[in-house]
Design a protein that fits this description.
Length: 119
């Protein structure tokens, strides 16, 4: 069973972390038919789409292993929906991952790049 409270807490910790680093949070839990993005923020003039993954064990590869190519494709497609819908002002785009493993947070800027042609 997945503990949604745990995931929500991890996302709140991640959003607070990004805000402390000077990011402007634009949206949280942005959902469309094609997928969901945990945090959308501006880092200066860079539009950041952040996926938050939290695990209590690395037995199955840890949090980063959960961001498969399929998940990356969904995030990229959802990012395109966000851009089309909101027309935010930005100079560049970045896909980050924020991993929490046993309470330790790791922020990975440019964790992945969208598949060619998605953005």
């Amino acid at each position: 069973m997945i503990d949604n409270t745990h995931g929500a807490q991890a996302e709140t910790l991640a959003a607070n972390y990004l805000q402390q680093k000077g990011y402007k949070i634009l949206a949280r839990n942005y959902r469309k038919n094609c997928g969901e993005i945990d945090i959308i923020a501006l880092d200066g003039k860079t539009l950041v789409f952040a996926e938050v993954k939290s695990r209590t064990s690395s037995a199955f590869g840890g949090p980063l292993a959960a961001i498969t190519k399929s998940k990356q494709n969904k995030i990229s497609a959802t990012a395109l929906c966000y851009i089309k819908e909101n027309a935010p002002k930005f100079d560049s785009i970045r896909f980050d991952t924020i991993c929490l493993l046993n309470g330790e947070m790791t922020h990975l800027p440019n964790a992945f790049f969208p598949p060619r042609g998605n953005l």
